[in-house]
Specification:
The protein is mostly helical. The protein is built from 10 helices and no strands. α5 runs antiparallel to α7, α5 runs parallel beside α8 and α7 packs across α8. The longest helix has 21 residues. It is elongated, with a radius of gyration of 20 Å.
Amino acid sequence: MGRPKTNDAAVKERLVACATEMLATVPQESVTVRALAAAAGTSTAAVYTLFGGKDGLVGEVRDRAVAGLFQDVSAVATSDDALADLYALAAAYRRWGTEHRHLYTVLFGGVQSFDPSGAVGTRDPVRPLLAAIDRAVADSVLAGEATMIAVSLWVTLHGLVTLELAGAFDAATAETAFPSTIHAALRGWATPAVFRSLRHTDSAP
């Protein structure tokens, strides 16, 4: 019997899947090349052949997480209502996080750091959020510096999704808490002219 292949697509996908789960569920120091290879049912050589080592495999997981979140938030249609768009972006973020809990945990649990002062890349998941905030500020709907508004909304959204993934909310509470909390965060940045209408909004647009 010949030696098993260590560089085919199936092995690559198993390694990525195992790395994603391990990075999200076990201590970082436990995620070794040997442990990754064993979990994927392959050899340590495969990790080096396919990814150049552990760092390359972790980078692949990170890149897939970033690309997946970017794809989902970028698919949100743009309308003439910037606030409705912001809510839709928040809903898309939550949906991606709950449908890809391990990737979400990896992305925001240490593999990918959030730098609110850093440059925004063309495929950065925060780009659609910043674009909607810029429109809302330009339309005198929200008032403030766009980056700080984005940080505020992300902190709120990340907290909601993280608690939901941790099982802190039952399904009914999660469905109620999400719209009311996101709208409350938007009200906090609203200009006086639009505050009154937002004050009574407690469900999705």
